[in-house]
């Protein structure tokens, strides 16, 4: 079968290769992948700016159907189900305090699918049954490929940050995770401003069509002025930095009202300089958000059942063979979320 493989360390070294079809181990099931989204992490693996372990098949945001079960798990999985897959727990120690508390993201031994072990930009992959999260029957299958990034947004917005009815939120960075944060905020009825750069034009337009209260191109207008105008001069209640850009982090700190909450969702990949005194003098609460827990996934699946449709951020669908064009469109920010269909 064809698989999109990072075949050796260093920048690049990704191509579509023939790999053997996997057979499930005793405790695994074999899944037929029906759709897999391209994530910023896949670009990082391509450019070697994120930890990876070649040879490894990319892709971790996927949905599929069970086609075969290992001997030890025979009969335990409903074959008629469509499943979103928690690839992040592919390898974890299962014994440390973080694994035991469900905060497996922090396990020092953790390796996720798509960079640590082989992922889902291919036709078949093998996982453990505990990694499967069944979609409710009312949920369209494609939504399953959005569960992983949506869970990251649910964690940031609904678990890490205290967002109250009547709050005004700022999302800085309209990439897929930023727009999914927007969707979760809107689902909770929160008035949300979304900021980006001129290169984000298409994504800001998408944010407006999703229901953002106001979008701001920070290269064309002053974010500080818009925030003042929209909040009677006081500043936003909560800010989510999702761009992983120094100027964006600074803008979030400046835009918050005293006693507001700042949540770091994006990754900078380097040290940055921000006016840290703002945190003290405005008495801000600052938190980091990485990934999700098992409980987040359960909650995320319920949100899909309630009608939240993360696939609204999907702008393009490609065949796996056309991965290169898909990656480029995503990298140029012309696309927001791109699904590959093996
Ligand atoms: Zn992802
Ligand atoms: Zn652990």
Question: What key phrases describe this protein's structure?
Answer:
single chain; Quinone Oxidoreductase, Chain A, domain 1; Rossmann fold; binds zinc ion
Descriptive report:
There is one protein chain. This protein is an alpha/beta fold. It folds into 2 domains: 2-148 and 292-341, Medium-chain alcohol dehydrogenases, catalytic domain (Quinone Oxidoreductase, Chain A, domain 1), CATH 3.90.180.10; 162-288, Rossmann fold. The chain contains 10 helices and 16 strands. The chain has helices at 40-47, 97-100, 147-160, 176-187, 201-210, 223-230, 246-255, 277-281, 294-305, 323-331; strands spanning 2-6, 14-18, 29-37, 56-57, 61-69, 83-85, 124-127, 132-134, 168-172, 191-196, 214-217, 236-241, 256-264, 285-288, 314-319, 337-341. The strands form 3 sheets. Strands 3, 5, 6, 7, 8, 15 and 16 form a 7-stranded mixed sheet that branches. A 6-stranded parallel sheet has the order 11-10-9-12-13-14, with helices on both faces. Helix 10 links the parallel strand 15 (314-319) and strand 16 (337-341). Helix 3 packs across helix 4 and helix 3 (147-160) crosses helix 9 (294-305). It is globular, with a radius of gyration of 20 Å. Bound molecules: zinc ion (2 copies). One zinc ion binds next to helix 2.
Describe this structure in a few short sentences.
By secondary structure, this protein is of the alpha/beta class.
What order do the helices and strands come in, and which of them pair?
Layout: E1 2-6, E2 14-18, E3 29-37, H1 40-47, E4 56-57, E5 61-69, E6 83-85, H2 97-100, E7 124-127, E8 132-134, H3 147-160, E9 168-172, H4 176-187, E10 191-196, H5 201-210, E11 214-217, H6 223-230, E12 236-241, H7 246-255, E13 256-264, H8 277-281, E14 285-288, H9 294-305, E15 314-319, H10 323-331, E16 337-341
Parallel strand pairs: 9-10, 9-12, 10-11, 12-13, 13-14, 15-16
Antiparallel strand pairs: 1-2, 1-4, 3-5, 3-7, 3-16, 5-6, 6-8
Bound molecules: zinc ion (2 copies).
